[in-house]
Amino acid sequence: MTQEIVTRFAPSPTGFLHIGGARTALFNWLFAKHNNGKMLLRIEDTDRARSTPEAVDALIDGLSWLGLDWEGDPISQFSRVGRHQEAVEQMLSSGTAYKCYSTPEEIEAMREKARAEGRPPRYDGTWRDRDPSLAPDGVNPVVRLKAPQEGETVINDMVQGRVVIPNKDLDDLILLRSDGTPTYMLAVVVDDHDMGVTHIIRGVDHLTNAARQTLIFKALGWNVPEMAHIPLIHGPDGAKLSKRHGATGAEAYRALGYLPQAMRNYLARLGWSHGDDEIISLEDMIAWFGMDAVGQSAARFDFKKLENLNGHYMRATGDAELLGHWKIYLQHADGGDAALFWLSQSDNEQTALTALPGLKERAKTLVELTESASYLWRQRPLDTDEKAQKILNEEARTILKELHNVLSTAPNWGSETLEAAVKSYAEERELKLGKVAQPLRAALTGRGTSPGIYDVLIALGREESLKRIEDQSA
Fold first, then answer.
1. Which of 60, 215, 261, 467 has the fewest Cβ atoms surrounding its Cβ within 10 A?
2. pTM of model > 0.85
3. Catalytic residue among 38, 113, 240, 243
4. What is the pLDDT of residues 136-155, one digit of tens each?
């Protein structure tokens, strides 16, 4: 019987879902889906100061926005401390761990001596084979792994290849602190085993942990999961992606007006490739994904490429679905209240759906779409931008007055009828179409640029359009 593939995403709750973590989650999710397996979610919340309910909610919110689901309930690492301690007792009984009574001062003295002798500063194994009866009174020991001192630890990494670490370079790391709390290294191993994780997919910055965790797996007599350490994401300047590059959290990209499907597509292409394919549907991503196509080199985040990709998805997404994404964006955007209030009014949602085909053709993000759509909810008389003010001169007002008369007698308010009426008027007045369309655009939207003028007329409807033209033709 073939073993079910189980991956896990195991973030620390920091108050947001880091974009690098989002890519790691996506790779875990895609690998599991491709292999008809499942992804689990574990919150590594042992840092109680940072691990607030709000921080956990922010992580889950980011994953949900990206459309990445997981099997079962999120697992709290902190809630499993008793199980971690139980595993250490097993190691003490089997002789693969021992209690260390060295004081912090003694540890520091060992490190100083090692530095002075040109050796790596680490614990020297003083209590490794010492009789526990020699333990001093009043000292709470830590528990250390009795790591092999000869040979080597090999990781056959699915991305990085064969990685060999001499065991002499791996010290007897701490498993339990003196207060009985487990260390990260121990907790990760116990949790991965108990959760049935078959494949660990994470950033290459965890590669140094892999050898140590492999030793713990073996010390407990457990199978070591397959490992894949994926390249880091760098900023455009080649440095590790950080706050100075701008948005680093998934929620920031949502607030910047990016669509989740565009983010998924873009993140999938950061380190993984499928020929020259740039635009990849979710179905194809799942069908094609494999660790063999993940490179070893760091991926560079290209904001311009993301924006262009997002523009594609804006145009390709159905109007009703895009409206749903737009509402979610407005809930998290600064200044989105006016648009949300307008959308909540009766019939306005239908008006928005009518306007969306024209709006999405000219917008690369939901921020741009909102700005272009703002004519829909701005109150009369419209405020006008500098470009519109220049357009609305005396000649333009005369044109608008005449256009008002032409449009008010239009037999119906359809796109073809309106276009025919405006073009006919321009021809009669021997005016270029732009000479007529520009004042009309400025009057209807208050802006010098806007979606197609006939789209605007249809979206606003007969009554509102005529009133706005009248406001500017007086």
1. 467
2. yes
3. 243
4. 888 899 999 999 999 999 99
